[in-house]
Amino acid sequence: MTRLFVGIELPDPVKDTLLRIESGIPGAHWQTAEQLHLTLRFIGEVDGPGATDIANALDLVEASGFDLEVKGVGIFGAPKRAHALWAGITDNPALNHLQAKIESALVRSGITPETRNFHPHITLARLRNPDRVRLLDFLQIHDGLILPPFEVDRFTLFSSFVTHKGSIYTAEETYALGPTTA
Prior knowledge:
It is a single chain. The chain is α+β, with helices and mostly antiparallel strands. It is globular, with a radius of gyration of 17 Å. A hairpin with a 2-residue loop joins strand 9 and strand 10 (166-176). The relative contact order is 0.27. It contains 4 helices and 10 strands. It has helices at residues 12-21, 48-58, 93-108, 132-142, and strands spanning 2-9, 28-30, 37-46, 66-68, 70-76, 84-89, 121-127, 150-152, 154-163, 166-176. The mean pLDDT is 95.
C-alpha cells in the first residue's frame, strides 16, 4: 500500500521565505523545505493497481497554468488546541478550478469523494500543546505576510512515508498545465 496525495510544489524562493519565519513557538514541529507544498487532494493508502488508475486519471486533467500568491498565516483549531499552523493562499478561481478537476478525475478513478471544503494552505508546522501566547504572537507578527506571486505550471502526485521525524514526500508523477491564462 502506498499513501498518496496530489499537490503543488513550491519554488525555492517561496520555501526559503517560509522557512525563515518558522520559529518561536514551543510545541511546534516545523516543516522542512522538502515538506513544504500546497495539497490539492489527500488520497490516502492505495494498492499498486489503484495507484496506476489514479496516475492515469490525473493524466487526463486539463487546466491552464496560473499565478499563486501566499498571503497571511493561520491555524487549524482554537489557539488553545491548535493542531496546525499554515500560510494562506490568496483566493484564486484558477486554483479552485484545478482542484475541482482533480477531484472529479479521482472520483472517476474510484476514489471516495472528499467531503471537506478545499482550504488552500501551506502547512508550516504541526502543533502539539503549543505555547498559546507565543502562537498568538506569531499569528499577529506574520498576519501581513505577502509573498510575490509565483507561476504554477504543473501539479504532482506524491507518495508519503510517515516517520517519527515527519513525513517524507516523493514526487511520483508530474502533470503539466496548459499555458498560463492572462
